[in-house]
Design brief:
Two copies of one chain form a homodimer. With about 450 residues, chain A is of the alpha+beta class. Chain A folds into two domains: about 280 residues, 3-Layer(aba) Sandwich (Aminopeptidase); about 120 residues, 2-Layer Sandwich (Alpha-Beta Plaits). The first copy, chain A, is built from 13 helices and 18 strands. A six-stranded mixed sheet of chain A has the order 1-2-6-3-7-17, sandwiched between helices. In chain A, strand 4 and strand 5 form a beta hairpin.
């Protein structure tokens, strides 16, 4: 990577070991937001992060309660006349299951070559840490930042961001600025630097099917009553056709079709279907008919079961008709689908097709709107140049298949233009066993962030 | 219940507390055969049972290793000229899951009114215990039994009876006799005394669907690849039609249709669909079109998922495409379906309909043939009279929906006529939480068994 000016580069060159150690301390806190069993750990991560921000030299640091997990806010506002940048990240992580598939314990960071393995190593503790290290290096060497800065770090991103809007409403004065950087994204396939220009939305739901009052003997009662697992399978199977199209009536009504330009942009990205298929270990890439893999994985909506359960899962057999069964489901949404409308459509459709003899409940589990950013903005130009100067090639402009409900809030409610920039490796096993961060991306990312801040200061109108 | 002759009745009247305590000791041993974690407990149950048989006064008691769980054999052969009766039961039990639904721990027997709650309280430790208590009472009061007796108690009935045939082959000389009583059955709905004249067979299989190399992020990869849970649901949904008919080609080819006489016999049984539906807590009784509930639950074949799993089952959400999913499946079979042929049909059909983009494996988990007994036999007459004399009403002749693969072996391989008799309450929650035995059935059952033995001695040709 290209070096930056001497005092900062010297400071950074001397501190790599300390940075990995600090990052490891952060990763060791199991801040799993979705599981109440980890609530105290999430709180501990917030406190740790507050202390870390003070050490880095931020002026005002505030760890505030929300009714759920804390929000961590910090700012440095000493750059009179320079633009103000709001940086968002999240310090909570996904549950670590299935534990048996980790090669090292998920909350005992392990450095293997240029990788560090741990839950949260990429998503999203890497990006948070990169920004904090950049700020610390600048304050330690220059004594000031080129821009005014507000950090907003959330603790519920992986659990539906339940209390975020309320906190934003109550803290509007802390969110004034010129530009927002949402740093919960990463690089493109092949670890190529990228700026994200679109995110899918999300609609989460849980389906519960209830049959007999409890598990009952499948010999004694088999044939007399509906089986909740069979019924749940019938429901799930009806949600998608063999052409990969989702069969919920009205599901595609609000989808803005990909334009010829969109499809040309997708086609221009360097992407190898065969290598991707081999990496994932699947016999075939499949999905909605009429679209390329890249289009399907970020430009088109999806419906996936995230988990299913019912009856006996242990060793050997247990000849029962389960008393109940359930599944967690998410749809990824694209502009202009609305998570609320999609949920209502799903619920109505399931109630219509539910087989007789069971009771079916469909409950919402949160959602977020899809977003699409403009690339015609001075901040995007400055960020692109910073990435090119750091990584030696211009960033790709990509659509991301994941969802950050917060982005729509920033854009719409706060009126801030958003740059989606982060440093996760594209195959970093986010939400999966053996999540990892590329430590070279980490180190280069710190330089890139410094260049972004310098670029913003130089190019803001 | 009607009393029997004074010395035996007096002996029994004085021993009820001791019998419940002994039964409780048996129930406290968690002899779960399907789960390897309980192997030592199953062994302990066999040793306990051997000791119990010695205490009861049996002559030759043998706990023999099989490569799996032990077989317990005991005999008393001192009734020269009288018929020889082979009595089968099993001392292993189903897994106790789901543990949270038990009102008391499954292996701490709890007496509530006339019920005793524990895993195995009815299926099948009750029947074994009733027979042993009857023998003990007879030997203690008369000094002899009216018939020659061989007990064969299995430890793998709930796990596929893997080593039974091998043991039978090696112990043929111990199984000579005139009649076999299979005591792994019970009473009809309403707790009405019954003799079972048919059992369904069973075919067990496990389906595994594999997608990406591990759980992956549903945003990043959603749309690009098939989801193993969605694929598994598609497979399961295709196995049965909305008319309740199983769609595996050839599935019904060998089914002997119910005759007019069969259907008339079903129609004559006292059975209330509404009460049954209410007991089970389901909105509707459903199954194969064109058949009554009673016909469906014992006279027609079934296909039920016993368990399903895949992805995240914890609190909150986890936005993943699971790396794999699986399900356990059983079919109950009727004459003349063959479990091997049914498995092959299932496997071929699943391989044919499996959606693209995943790998599917279908593995056999054991099976047993359906059986249908004749009711024209002196032993059946004697058993029916014994039940009528004990319970004050003639037994119903019923078909049972459950499966005892052993019965076909007894009938075919050993050439023994079989009487299917037992005392479990029909709603005893076998294979389910809060399994229980009716202690009145238990006490009356002891008298009934004594009358059966006396009746066999009096009526054998």
């Amino acid at each position: 990577m290209a070096e930056i000016e001497t005092p900062v580069e010297s400071y950074l060159a001397a501190g790599r070991e300390r940075r990995i150690a600090t990052f490891g301390d952060f990763l060791r806190i199991p801040s799993v937001s979705a599981d109440p069993a980890f609530a105290a750990d999430v709180h501990r991560a917030a406190e740790w992060l507050g202390e870390r921000l003070r050490t880095a030299g931020l002026d005002h640091v505030d760890v505030s309660e929300t009714g759920g997990h804390p929000m961590v806010y910090a700012d440095w506002l000493g750059a009179a006349g320079a633009p103000t940048v709001v940086v968002y990240g999240h310090y909570d992580v996904q549950p670590p299951d299935p534990l048996a598939e980790w090669t090292s314990p998920p909350f005992e960071p392990a450095v293997v070559g240029h990788r560090i393995l741990a839950r949260g190593a990429s998503d999203d503790k890497s990006n948070i840490s990169i920004f904090i290290e950049a700020v610390q290096a600048l304050l330690a060497t220059r004594g000031r930042l080129p821009v005014n800065l507000r950090f907003v770090f959330e603790g519920e991103e992986e659990a539906g961001s339940e209390h975020l809007e309320e906190w934003l409403e109550a803290n509007r004065e802390r969110l004034g600025g010129d530009i927002a950087i949402i740093s919960d994204v990463g690089f493109f396939e092949g670890n190529l630097p990228a700026l994200t220009i679109a995110l899918r939305g999300i609609m989460s739901a849980e389906i519960t099917v209830t049959g007999p009052f409890q598990d009952v003997h499948s010999g004694v009662y088999g044939g007399a009553i509906a089986n909740p697992v069979n019924a749940l399978a019938t429901i799930i199977a009806a949600l998608k056709g063999p052409d990969g199209r989702i069969r919920i009536p009205g599901f595609y009504d609000d989808v803005v079709p990909l334009s010829d330009d969109d499809r040309a942009a997708y086609a221009a990205l360097p992407f190898d279907d065969d290598a991707y298929r081999e990496f994932l270990g699947v016999p075939e890439l499949v999905g909605e008919a009429g679209h390329t893999t890249l289009e399907r994985k970020s430009g088109r909506p999806t419906l996936d079961i995230n988990g299913i359960w019912g009856g006996y899962q242990g060793e050997g057999g247990k000849t029962i008709i389960p008393g109940r069964a359930g599944a967690k489901l998410t749809c990824r949404l694209v502009p202009d689908q609305d998570p609320g409308r999609i949920f209502e459509g799903l619920k109505a459709f399931i109630e219509e097709i539910a087989p007789p003899g069971v009771r079916v409940r469909v409950e919402p589990q949160g959602g977020g709107h899809p977003i699409r950013s403009s690339i015609d903005h001075w901040a995007v130009d400055a960020a692109a140049k910073a990435l090119e100067d750091t990584f030696g090639r211009p960033p790709l402009f990509i659509r991301e298949g994941g969802s950050i409900p917060f982005v729509a809030t920033f854009e719409q409610a706060l009126g801030l233009p958003v740059v989606l920039m982060g440093f996760m490796p594209p195959d970093g096993n986010f939400h999966a066993p053996n999540e990892w961060m590329d430590l070279d991306n980490f180190e280069a990312g710190i330089r890139a962030v410094i260049r972004v801040f310098d670029g913003f200061a130089a190019s803001a109108p």
